[in-house]
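User: Could you go from structure to sequence for me? I need the amino acid at each position, not a summary. Structure tokens:
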């Protein structure tokens, strides 16, 4: 039996071999789990895991005692409800607050947190816009930040700016912000402790150094909303492109600063709105891809490993993906044709996927075995393939998850 450190090193090397387009000792297995570890353990509900980190950690311990992926999650996807309560976050619904069933995963509620006529304001000073408008609209208990403005503080201008801190709404918001900060810091400390536990007890490297997004999605997901930003490509095209440029610059710096020096180099990009069905090839080429390519390239050049989760289908986008630095990125596909992806990206970029969540939840064990063998036969030859689920796994059948693990670890050996 290999010691824990050697298991850790072997798993990390296996993944990095695949990233570098070499054939590892076997196909790496890196499924993306969300609620499944809690459902599998059966020791707490989703509500419990969000309210008590210790309960979330206990569930993950049970999960990792049985399942041994080559990279794994800590409980980061179970955002703590105390921070959401203290900040009054408006774009989440979670069990115990808005959802009656305590074992239902939280939901993201999209909204229009930047209006269509506010592009110029955001472009001119994104920091002021975030403080005075986006945060107050996104967090009901932080509305007082709309009254704080330091831009005119030079000389005696500071008197008027500082006087705003006597406003009861500002005071209440600052108190809520301090409380929220304490909740988040406690959570960060707990997450750091569990990452060490993953390494020292289970020999499993952390799956991510940090998260990133396409600049188009950063605006669309959190500021404008899906319908609105897709309409903006027609109604506000030049303003949208200028704001994308602003967002791209600080997103690159923040991603590199936040992810460098971590235990593993994997920067997970979550792509949402560039799918085949959402925009034309011409729109993808103009609005979505240039800023994303710039972001990915900068992160790869900084010595990090972009892992790009391609939500939906990118069957018409595969040629674009070959523009990233070769041998430095991973593309994780949900619905993209894996045979076409291997044909297009083989020898250029590692590909990852794509056991369907529907199959894992409703299919039979043999279906999963056959599908995993098909993926290995199609994508593993020559290297550059990682076995993954098509999307985050919640209420899958245990026997189907075991089938994915067993097939990969036996049939996927070189």
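Assistant: Here is the amino acid at each position, in order:
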């Amino acid at each position: 039996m290999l010691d824990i450190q050697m298991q850790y090193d072997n798993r990390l090397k296996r993944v990095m071999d695949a990233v570098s387009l070499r054939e590892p000792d076997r196909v790496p297995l890196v499924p993306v789990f969300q609620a499944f570890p809690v459902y599998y353990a059966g020791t707490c509900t989703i509500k419990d895991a969000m309210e008590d980190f210790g309960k979330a950690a206990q569930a993950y311990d049970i999960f990792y005692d049985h399942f041994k992926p080559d990279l794994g999650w800590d409980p980061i996807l179970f955002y703590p409800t105390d921070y959401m309560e203290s900040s009054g976050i408006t774009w989440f619904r979670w069990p115990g607050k808005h959802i009656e069933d305590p074992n239902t995963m939280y939901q993201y509620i999209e909204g229009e947190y930047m209006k269509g006529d506010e592009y110029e304001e955001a472009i001119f000073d994104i920091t002021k816009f975030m403080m005075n408008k986006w945060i107050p609209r996104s967090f009901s208990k932080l509305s007082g930040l709309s009254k704080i403005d330091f831009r005119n503080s030079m000389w005696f201008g500071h008197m008027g700016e500082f006087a705003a801190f006597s406003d009861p709404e500002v005071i209440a918001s600052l108190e809520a912000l301090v409380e929220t900060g304490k909740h988040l810091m406690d959570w960060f400390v707990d997450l750091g402790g569990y990452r060490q536990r993953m390494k020292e007890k289970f020999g499993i490297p952390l799956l991510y150094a940090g998260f990133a997004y396409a600049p188009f999605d950063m605006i669309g997901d959190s500021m404008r909303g899906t319908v609105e930003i897709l309409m903006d490509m027609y109604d506000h095209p030049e303003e949208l492109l200028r704001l994308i440029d602003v967002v791209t610059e600080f997103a690159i710096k923040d991603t590199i600063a936040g992810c460098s020096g971590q235990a593993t180099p994997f920067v997970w990009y979550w792509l949402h709105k560039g799918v085949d069905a959402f925009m034309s090839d011409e729109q993808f080429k103009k609005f979505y891809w240039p800023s994303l390519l710039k972001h990915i390239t900068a992160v790869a050049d900084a010595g990090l490993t972009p892992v790009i989760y391609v939500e939906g289908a990118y069957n018409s986008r595969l040629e674009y993906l070959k523009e990233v630095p070769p041998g430095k990125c991973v593309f994780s596909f949900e619905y993209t044709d894996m045979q076409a992806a291997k044909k297009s990206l083989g020898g250029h970029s590692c590909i990852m996927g794509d056991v369907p969540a529907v199959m894992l939840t409703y299919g039979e064990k043999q279906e999963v075995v056959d599908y995993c063998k098909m993926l290995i036969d199609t994508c593993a030859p020559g290297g550059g393939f990682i076995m993954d689920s098509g999307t985050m796994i919640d209420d899958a059948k245990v026997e189907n998850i075991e089938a994915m693990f067993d097939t990969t670890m036996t049939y996927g050996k070189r």
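One structural detail worth keeping in mind: The chain is about 55% helix and 10% strand.
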